[in-house]
Amino acid sequence: MTGLVGLFSRASKDPNQKKNNEKFKEFKKLAKQKKYDAAIKSGTEYIKKVPNNHDVLFTMGGIFYLKKKYKTAISYFDKSLEIAEYDVDALLLKAYSHQKLGENKRAIQCCQKIQEVDPKNKSVSELLDQLNS
């Protein structure tokens, strides 16, 4: 039964998948080790080959947030939210980024979206209190 091909094939259709998986692991390791500049370089190369990897897009956004590059962070969060529209973590970091840029209206919009799926989210309540004060 190992001779099946097509729909049931175990072989990857993407000849670069193994290389991409190694790149992904390298990126995650660099991010975990807080080697952010190297992680950004690795992540950027990976995204060129695999543009819709939610984990990489979200992590890249997180790294740029930590580096206080909020506009760049938001662009990565937006891309990750195209894949997972109600990712609470991405929405929350996007809201914090907007807050840091003084874009309170946009931050509030992110909070409202989070509340649609997680109405009791404590971080959102605290952020909304700050934004509305």
From TrEMBL:
Keywords: Repeat, TPR repeat. Transmembrane segments: none annotated. TPR repeats lie at residues 54-87. PANTHER family: CELLULOSE SYNTHASE OPERON PROTEIN C, TPR REPEAT-CONTAINING PROTEIN MJ0263. This is Uncharacterized protein. It comes from Candidatus Nitrosopumilus sediminis. The lineage of its organism: Archaea, Nitrososphaerota, Nitrososphaeria, Nitrosopumilales, Nitrosopumilaceae.
